[in-house]
Design brief:
The complex is a heterodimer of chains A (about 100) and B (about 140).
Chain A: H1 2-16, E1 26-29, H2 31-39, E2 49-52, H3 67-101
Antiparallel strand pairs in A: 1-2
Helix pairs in contact in A: 1-3
Chain B: H1 3-6, H2 9-32, E1 48-57, E2 66-77, E3 83-86, E4 98-101, H3 106-143
Antiparallel strand pairs in B: 1-2, 3-4
Classes of the chains: A mainly alpha (about 100), B alpha+beta (about 140).
Chain lengths: ~100, ~140
């Protein structure tokens, strides 16, 4: 959820800078790193990381923020956040049931 | 993530809203003055343009970037030369009957207005989605 919230912040920052000349969009890497760490023998919690993303075409003013792409990322991220919060909710429910039954 | 940071995404989106609003104001002012031939500084009205700059701190806790959205760095006059139109009856005409008219082009301003309004919408959308996310997070406490 922290990662999703950070990503929302980063995408908001991209959107705020959609008209800043020379701005390079930022992205958050978390899921890829998590998958990598889970594959190893010693899983540990990895921190989300902000990276510059120079992909996509640059406009004449050197800015590579695409409004549609950012809005897509925003929606995707909101859905992910919903998923994470439901998972956490489920976890809490399970714990509550366990304490009540005992 | 501390509580102070929890809602700080709102500030990022709000900075975008404020910047785009100022851009719209400047474009509207340019259109309103498209035919102003005399100003207090003398000469015709000079088209104004905004310069945006990103607000970012590289050196904060944990080496993470701290993102603070966008700010308007400055409002600069457009230095393209004025057009000269022959209007002998005009009060601002020179000896040859020529009048300098502002370097504002209406189509350009309208395009600027359109992009500003789209960017404004995008920032608003981001604010709405963030509100949804925050409500979801808060509902976790409520359910417990």
């Amino acid at each position: 959820m922290d990662a999703a919230q950070l990503r929302h912040r980063v995408v908001s920052h991209n959107l705020a800078n959609v008209n800043t000349p020379g701005y390079t969009r930022l992205d958050v890497q978390f899921e890829e790193q998590l998958a990598e760490v889970l594959g190893t023998s010693q899983p540990r919690v990895s921190a989300p990381e902000i990276v510059k993303d120079p992909s996509g075409s640059r406009r004449a003013d050197g800015n590579n923020v695409d409004l549609d792409r950012e809005l897509g990322a925003l929606n995707k991220n909101a859905t992910l956040f919903q998923l994470y919060s439901s998972l956490l909710q489920h976890h809490y429910d399970t714990m509550r049931r366990a304490t009540q039954t005992g | 993530m501390g509580f102070g940071q929890l809602l700080s995404t709102t500030d990022v989106a709000a900075s975008g809203l404020a910047a785009e609003r100022l851009r719209m104001e400047i474009a509207t002012n340019n259109i309103a003055n498209a035919n102003t031939t005399s100003t207090p500084e003398g000469g015709p009205f000079r088209r104004q343009q905004v310069v945006f700059s990103t607000v970012m701190d590289e050196t904060t806790q944990l080496g993470q970037l701290s993102l603070n959205g966008v700010e308007v760095a400055e409002v600069l006059p457009d230095q393209t030369p004025f057009e000269r139109v022959h209007m002998p009856g005009h009060p601002d005409a020179d000896d040859q009957g020529n009048v300098l008219i502002p370097n504002v082009s209406i189509p350009m301003e309208l395009v600027d207005l359109m992009t500003a309004s789209r960017a404004y919408e995008a920032n608003l959308k981001s604010l709405k989605i963030f509100k949804q996310m925050a409500e979801q997070a808060i509902s976790l406490i409520r359910a417990g």
